[in-house]
Amino acid sequence: MKRITLLASLLLAGLAQNVFAKDGYKIQLKYTDVTDSMVYLAHYYGKPLPTIYKADSAKLDKNGVATFESKEKFTGGIYMMLLSDKKTYFEFLLDNGDEMTITATQSKLPDGLKFKNSAENERFQEYVKFLKDFGGKQKETQDRLATAKTADDTASIRKLLVEGSKKLIGYRRDYVAKHPNTLLSSIFNSLEVPQVPEGKHYQADGKTEDSSFAYNYYKGHYWDYFNFQDDRLIYTPVYDAKLDEYFSKLVLPLIDSVEHEADKLLAKADGTKDMFKYTLWWITHWVESSKIMGMDEVFVYLVENYYMKGKATWLENEQLQKYIEQAQKIAPNVIGNVAADVKMQDTNGKDVSLYGVKSKYTLLVFWSPECGHCLHEVPRIDSLYRAELKKRGVKIFGVRVEGDEKKWKDVIKKEKLDDWIHAWDPEYKSNFRSKYNVYSTPVIYLLDEKKIIRGKKLDHSTILQVIENLEKKEKVTNNTKSK
Hints:
14 helices; alpha+beta; 4-stranded mixed sheet; Immunoglobulin-like; 5-stranded mixed sheet; single chain; disordered N terminus
């Protein structure tokens, strides 16, 4: 018989582990003070409570015992045992292949949990206890800060808060060092936030203080410890909040910046199932619902570069087509495109067209006399026009989208909208709804003298700001050319 070498033994052991490793989970749950009741195995999905998702269910018998078992491979994370009242629950860690016994007492939750055959959950409970004590002490310190009477008191109390935060960070980092490659370590790493180096920081010349150092450092190191290849992090309440802080507070609200950051994060998550799916969904939803001008162009970019290229494999064809159709409606009128001409009739039935308006800027306003928000917004736009816009070379092309003709003319007369160019399309030949994605009112665009779209999703409070920004850019460009 041939001798088996040490290396061969190790290889065989590795193969054996792969062959006999079990997928799924087996959990025996024992409640000491609850019987004959349904209990649910639930989990997070990107967001914190109250959004939870049920994964399994079982009924506690007369002894308060229930068994959860599955042989299907699943994604681990922070899971919950949720009682039938849908309010009482406790959290624990669950990973693919886990088998454990949990003993709980409802009247003591979240305390009093006991785990068998799950060392990581025992450590997780130690962390929960630490966190409870830490939270209590930090709250006491914050209460003291609220009642501090001198600058010295405020400074010393703030120092205590910082020291407390350092203890929490130190606890997590120490755990990661002792128990690397565990689920809880991955969660702790995902909670890391950059610690900006203290002291003064200078630009390349070594003399000028870098006022943006803290921002650039924090943003540049924001995702250092987050593992985009670990789908289990989606089954925790961490990721959604991190994405929101990053895109809402750190990424510049500019089209190119958002597109660049989206590409960067999606590349990090490429090849995963849940992480890529959630990241693409979240960014798409964020730009689609954003009130920041130009984010609809990012939506088109995401649809064209991800959805239309087969990256959203989880979507049914009908759902996918909705994204594509929405992008196709938006694409023709994104900022920087030449606006489509519309030929209509004025209040006297004479032909008018958008391209016939000769001015430095054209404010294109789609509104209806039946729209309450329009009746609020239109007079304010006119007041702004009289006070500021007219002297800046703005003309207003107002389009009646729908509504009673007499009421439309009555509003024009009542609000004294004499300087507006008023138009409507009685026979619906201009296709303005499709050209300008007008499916609600009011819809407002700002065009320059070449009828290039310079602003959209505007209201009376933002029009002037857009014009001032354009004029500043124009001034900088002219100064550069003259040098």
